[in-house]
Amino acid sequence: MIIDAHQHFWQLSRGDYGWLTPELETLYRDFMPTDLAPHLDQHGIDGTILIQAAPTLAETEFLLEIADKNSFVLGVVGWVDFEATSAPYDIARLAEHPKLVGFRPMIQDIPDDEWMLRPDLTPAFEAM
After folding, report:
1. Phi-psi sector, 93: left (phi>0), alpha (psi -120 to 50), beta
2. DSSP characters over 40-60
3. Cα separation of 50 and 28, whole Å?
């Protein structure tokens, strides 16, 4: 089985992709399952893992909805606010979805190199 382990979809009208601006001409449009499906067939790719492209719970829920409708989506790596007091609840709620396989912070946007070592993130890590 061949799996694309890091793949994104986005829909500009959702409005939570702060990094995605008109200056990124090639990328500044919706990318949805219909855009990808022909390439999967053409290259013999059996499935994909969707990775969040925006730091919002709405993004994770959007990707899980896509996963529900597309059998080639084998898993979703979502986002939660690891610093929020609601993080353990959000993690538990989202983890009920059978295609959720993990979470990632937008680590490239966090200036503190030791952010992941902070003790206030322990509840989120324990929830995972």
Report:
1. alpha
2. HHHHT--EEEEE--SSSHHHH
3. 18
Q: Any residues with CB less than 8 A from the CB of 56 and at least 6 apart, and which?
A: 16, 79
- DSSP structural state of residue 98: T
Distance CA 120, CA 127 (A): 13
Q: Helix (H, G, I), strand (E, B), or coil: what is residue 38? A: helix
Kindly state the helix (H) or strand (E) to which residue 6 belongs, with its residue range.
strand 3-7
Distance of CA 55 to the CA centre of its chain: 8
- The one-digit pLDDT tens for each residue of the chain (128 residues) are 999 999 999 999 999 998 999 999 999 999 999 999 999 999 999 999 999 999 999 999 999 999 999 999 999 999 999 999 999 999 999 999 999 999 999 888 889 999 999 999 999 999 99
CA distance 125 to 82: 8
For the chain, the residue count is 128
